[in-house]
Structures are given as structure tokens and as C-alpha cells.
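thread: overnight batch results

M.L. [08:02]
morning all. the overnight job finished for the chain we discussed friday. pasting input first so we're all looking at the same thing
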Amino acid sequence: MGHAIGSVLSRHENIRVITNVVGRSPRTVDLAKKAGMITVNSYTELIEQVDVLLSILVPSQAIKLAKQIQQAIKPDSKFIYADLNAVSPSTVKQMEQLFDKYPNIQFVDGGILGGPPDLNGKTPKIYLSGEHAQQLEFLRDYGLDIRVIGNEVGQASGLKMCYAATLKGFTAIAIQASVTSKMLGLGEVLFNELKDSQPYVFKRMQSGIPDMAPKAYRWVGEMEEIASTFESMGLSPKIFQGAADTYRFVADQTPLGKEIVEDRKLGKTLGDAVDIMAQSLAGKKP
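M.L. [08:03]
and the structure it wrote out:
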């Protein structure tokens, strides 16, 4: 997502998109360069050049990045730090506290809803909240769909948690149902019934399960953040702890976990993806 957002911004001549590539994989570096980003070799160098810092990465690394940025801040540093990661309101508030003592660092809470920008001009919605959120509305002029929804840090991230729960939570349930039916010898029967009585659900499964494969490792942390969010409201976290386990299984224990978005080889259809996951589980059974 980060390089895709960067690509949209870098199309405009009067804006510079900069990223720190130290410690990143060769694939990430290549994606950044293809997106037209300027690469630097430290966070100190990065924050010396930016007015706005958009944090977009694996949810489990969001706080780590915020701390690295904090450590690089100098007395004359001045920028907006917008966390756009799929993390809980409580996690976002922890990050906000890291910058509280820096009067020239303004924190914004954000959540990205939808897939990466594509060549047809489709872009995700970027919801923002917090006291300084409106300062990022200018990014609409650079191709981003910015939507400010409130003045409180935690609102945008809370929306992201609830939205992602309905979509990625469904995919986790669909994975478990599909793989179990396959291992019981009922896969074809289940799919035929869904086609007949729940065509919209089956259509979602046809796209959602194959598309999930190269993203499963990212979704583990996101499901854990959703579990934490719901638990803080007095609800059980167990559903989404289970969803995290489901995506952890895909990422760590099946060949699908080695897939990458731009070069898919395995599990490109619902049937193939389910077959691979079922075979991986069959190999684990005593």
C-alpha cells in the first residue's frame, strides 16, 4: 500500500515523496523506486526533508517506527506525523504520546479503507481524525481521497478496525469453512450450495481467499489489533484472535505464505487456494 500511495503523490511535479530504505528488503526498495520515490538512508535524513510523514507498514511495526522517528527528532524538527496503519485506537494513542513533548510535531490518526490505487484512477479512502487532521486535506489536490471525521485521535483507527473486521474477519471464517469442507470430502457440495443460495457470499470467497494469500502475514497483526479493540469495549477478543491464528497458519505453514502480490504463482483461484491449505493441514494431522 505504501508504495502505491507514494506513486499517486509522486505523479505531481510540485511534491517530493521520500522514503527511508535502510533495512528494507530488495523488493521494497525496488517498489519504492518504481513508484518514483526519493530514497534516503536514515530517519534523521528523512525528517529533515519532510513536511508530512505518512506511516504505512505492517501493523506490528507501527509503534517501532514511531519510536525510531521520535529518536531522530531534533530541536528544529517540524512535521505532521500521520499514522495510517491498521492498529487499534489504544495503539494510536500510545504513539501520540511519544510526540506530546514536541510542540512542532503534530500527530494525526488515520485509517486506509479499500485496496491500493490502480491504473484506472481508483483510490482508497483515507479517513483522518485528531486536532490537526484538517491540515492534511490539501492532499486531495494530489490524488488522495482524504476524509476528516473528527477531532479525536482514535476515531479514524477505530473505524478502520470495525471496517476491517467485517471484511477480513469474513475471509478468515470462509477459509476455515472451505478448508474443513474440503478435508471432509464436502468441498464441492458446499460450494454448489453457496452458489445456489448465497451467490454474493460465494463471489466474495472467490476473490477474497485467493487475494488474501500474499497479505496473510500482514493481517495477523491487524486481527490482533481488532481483537484488542473489541476487548476494550467489553466484547470477546477470541473471534479475532482465531482469525489471527488462521492468517498465521496461511503465512507460516502453507506455500501460499511465500506468494507476493505482483508475481502470483500459487492459489490464484478459490479451489487451488483451498486445496493448498487443506494439503498443508493434512500433512500436520497425526
